[in-house]
Design brief:
Layout: E1 15-29, E2 35-47, E3 57-58, E4 61-63, H1 70-82, E5 88-95, E6 105-114, H2 117-120, E7 129-133, H3 144-161, E8 172-173, H4 175-186, H5 192-200, E9 205-212, E10 220-225, H6 252-256
């Protein structure tokens, strides 16, 4: 019996694959003069300039290239849109609800990154790239608010049992600085004495012989982590993490054209 060579008609629409990143830092200003009384968790957003959701803010992201890994795509998009190259970059979750994008079916592999406040100040800001407090976000495109809330939930949970706060601090830090990170992430005040006892008994930090001087208060003891924090996933060796030369400023369209 001769088999039919007639191709089967493809009725299902194509599914797009994108990579987006949630970037958290500890800061008290947006880089343009707006400040909060206390440092909090902030994240950069990119304004869309095309439909769907023209004019709304969104997470940095872009389509996955056929020849790049997920981690390469996440790092490339971050460096292109914000100039950031975070030490901590971890895959968060895959978001693929059927109705998350009104234009076409798009599945987003989302990473989350943590950067220190000094590194955050080097972000390439502009009309379409700005920092926002995580607890006072503007309306976001797609399901990006749900993604941010999930990333915050993950951050708060990991803070309780790991040394993830290292990404917000330098190699050495005072217990007051560490407590400030915990208070910002958990959004509650912590008793200094109880916090000190918990941290010192956790095995996550070691006391050094150095002191932090120069402030209004007496010198404070510096601590360091027992283990360094590195990227759980890093771009492929020998490959550039940027799709475009980083010496030039991206155009408005390059900054804002992200899929879901």
């Amino acid at each position: 019996m001769q088999r039919s060579t007639t191709p089967v008609e493809q009725t299902d629409p194509q599914v797009g694959l994108a990579v987006s990143t949630v970037i958290f830092t500890l800061r008290a200003d947006d880089g343009f003069g707006a400040t909060d009384p206390q440092p909090g968790i902030w994240l950069p957003l990119v304004r869309r300039i095309r439909e769907p959701y023209d004019g709304l803010w969104a997470l940095p992201g872009g389509p996955l290239g056929a020849a790049e890994s997920l981690a390469d795509a996440a790092s490339s998009t971050l460096e292109t849109t914000t100039s950031l190259r975070p030490r901590y970059l971890e895959q968060l979750y895959a978001f693929g609800d059927l109705d998350r994008s009104p234009a076409e079916r798009v599945v987003s592999i989302v990473y989350w990154a943590l950067v220190g406040s000094d590194e955050a100040k080097r972000t390439r800001l502009g009309q379409n790239v700005r920092w926002f407090p995580a607890d006072a976000l503007p309306p976001l495109a797609f399901d990006h608010r749900d993604i941010v809330e999930y990333a915050l939930w993950r951050l708060r949970n990991k803070l309780e049992y790991s040394h993830i706060a290292h990404a917000f601090l330098g190699e050495t830090f005072t217990l007051s600085e560490l407590r400030e990170v915990h208070e910002a992430v958990l959004q509650k005040q912590l008793d200094p004495a109880n916090f000190r006892r918990q941290v010192e008994s956790s095995g996550l930090v070691l006391q050094t012989d150095e002191l932090r001087t120069g402030g209004r208060h007496r010198p404070a003891r510096l601590y360091r982590w027992t283990q360094p924090v590195t990227r759980p996933e890093t771009p492929s060796p020998g490959r550039s993490t940027s799709r475009r030369p980083t010496t030039s400023t991206p155009t408005t369209r390059q900054q804002s054209e992200e899929p879901a």
